[in-house]
Write a structure and sequence with these properties.
three-stranded mixed sheet, 11 helices, about 75% helix, globular
Length: about 300
């Protein structure tokens, strides 16, 4: 589809215009990005190398780590460059590509988290049929479906932007090509784009949230019926990491979309974006490493192996 725009590049205003603050932010986000890469790569390596982790739960976690690496890599490297660059510009096509990848990964992540909730529901509430239902083929289908829905979600939002006309202002009040900030620059009517965007976000968010919520209602109900305290602790430990990750994700999204207009601000929107697109991908591997007994055991094995090789 041809885009009749007179704007060839956008200016990302970023988080601060103070040169000293930009250097400080460069160091902070460099450390965050490095931790995100190392943490998620370690998770992926551990899952691949330890045969005890070749289960559906860790299959989903492996793909969640891929999404988290992509999530950060879509925005952070360009942000780091802009902290040090005088011209904080991004080409129109690169901006559209960044936005497309962001929606692709966001849509995929929320469905993978729902698949993980369903997996925990089967493991705790229907253990006798777990292996039969959550087969390798089913896991592949769920992950493939998550990527396909993410692709559709990204394509729909991208096509809506490509239909718009940008003819004057090209300064985006954000550190990345955020869609709401981008829509404000359009010279043409954006109501349709905003309605479709909100409808898609609410539909996907509500559907995946209901799957997760219903799964955990059944999980908690089942755990509470376990007589022994040790049995309840073991059952809850298998899903506590995922519950924390889901909680962080949905709480951030909830406050982002339901905040009153009176407190709406560019800074607040940027803080929410930093939380779910930069901080959460860094925290996920930490949460799974600290709260998951099997993961901690696998990590110890690898560390001992490297120590032995030395």
């Amino acid at each position: 589809m041809e885009n009749q725009t007179t704007v060839t590049e956008f200016i990302l205003l970023g988080l601060s215009s103070d040169p000293q603050m930009q250097i400080f932010l460069f160091l902070v986000f460099s450390v965050i990005y490095l931790n995100t890469l190392v943490g998620n790569i370690v998770i992926m390596v551990v899952i691949r190398t330890d045969s005890h982790l070749h289960t559906p739960m860790y299959f989903f976690l492996f793909h969640l780590s891929i999404v988290d690496i992509g999530y950060s890599s879509v925005t952070v490297p360009n942000m780091l460059i802009n902290f040090l660059a005088e011209q904080k510009t991004i080409l129109f096509n690169n901006c559209i590509a960044q936005m497309f990848l962001f929606f692709l990964l966001a849509g995929t992540e929320v469905f993978i988290l729902s698949a993980m909730a369903y997996d925990r529901y089967l493991a705790i509430c229907d253990p006798l049929h777990y292996v039969k239902i959550m087969s390798t083929a089913m896991c592949v289908q769920l992950v493939s479906g998550a990527w396909m829905i993410g692709f559709f979600y990204a394509q729909l939002n991208t096509v809506l932007v490509l239909r718009l006309h940008f003819c004057g202002h090209n300064q985006i009040s954000h550190f990345s090509c955020d869609l709401p900030a981008l829509l404000q620059l359009s010279c043409t009517e954006t109501l349709t784009s905003q309605v479709v965007r909100l409808t898609c976000a609410v539909t996907i968010g509500v559907c995946t949230f209901l799957v997760t919520l219903i799964s955990y209602i059944h999980i908690i109900s089942t755990i509470l019926r376990i007589r022994s305290a040790e049995g309840r602790r073991k059952a809850f430990s298998t899903c506590s990491s995922h519950l924390i990750v889901v909680g962080l994700f949905y709480l951030t999204a909830f406050f982002h979309y339901t905040k009153p207009s009176s407190v709406s601000s560019v800074l607040l929107d940027e803080m929410f974006s930093i939380q779910y697109s930069i901080l959460t991908p860094m925290l996920n591997p930490i949460i799974y490493s600290l709260k998951n007994k099997e993961m901690k055991t696998a990590l110890r094995k690898i560390f001992r192996k490297f120590k032995f090789l030395k």
